[in-house]
């Protein structure tokens, strides 16, 4: 996709450039990391019940931990597409015009409904929001949530998306290298935690990634 | 007519407009483009559906050149 790497990559020189292989490895780490959080709690719960059924309340607390911790991680991932309103309404209207020029009819219509822009890439299908992006990987089952933004505080949301979209289109791997991976896991885990109006965008991305 | 725009707090601002035959307008656009680079903006042009390219010199044949700010991990 890229003729030249994003200049922002130089600011994170210590990070290896993201590619499909490295990303798959990071995803495996995320899965192992999640299991490392969940497994011990479930194991302790099972052990407690086996040793002393009266320890049921303690076992239930362990199970609750095993459920809550992955939920918190998924919520952190979902937060990448939540954003505060910035800029004036007039600026947003003007920015929407430019964003509309950058994307096709379907993406424009999806953005109007959900606030996210769908963009196909080599790593998967991206959903770009004002302060981050969700990458739905090929197959449509796993989502990687990336935190990435423009530092200027007063830029309207549509312009923020346009900034990210242009950077993504210029150098997808560089875009992923610059961004911070906030979560990687099943699409359904992210879907349950993003705002309801954004869910059709995630469904569309998952469908496009299959 | 080609346009140089900058994404900013107003949505976007048109910084220059030019046609290939208008040497004075081209000169103004090139100067404006360089001034924006000095301010830390990056020049971008769309190169087809789903593709964009960063440019270090103003591409005079491009219809639209967009200046964007740097991005960073949040």
| SSE string of chain A | HHHHEEEEHHEHH
Give the percentage of residues in beta strands of chain A.
5-15%
Cross-sheet strand order for the largest sheet of chain B: 2-1-5-3-4
CA-based shape of chain B: globular
- Quantity of strands of chain B, as a count: 6
Q: What's the alpha carbon Rg of chain B, rounded to whole Å?
A: 12 Å
Largest sheet of chain B: 5 strands, mixed
**Ends apart, CA distance between termini of chain B:** 37 Å
State the share of residues found in helices of chain A, binned by percent.
55-70%
Assign the structural class of chain B, choosing from mainly alpha, mainly beta, alpha/beta, alpha+beta, or little secondary structure. alpha+beta
The main sheet of chain A orders its strands as 1-2-3-4-5
Report the total helices of chain A.
8
Main sheet attributes: strand count, strand direction, barrel closure of chain A: 5 strands, antiparallel
* Rg of chain A (CA only): 19 Å
Query: Ends of chain A: how far apart?
Result: 21 Å
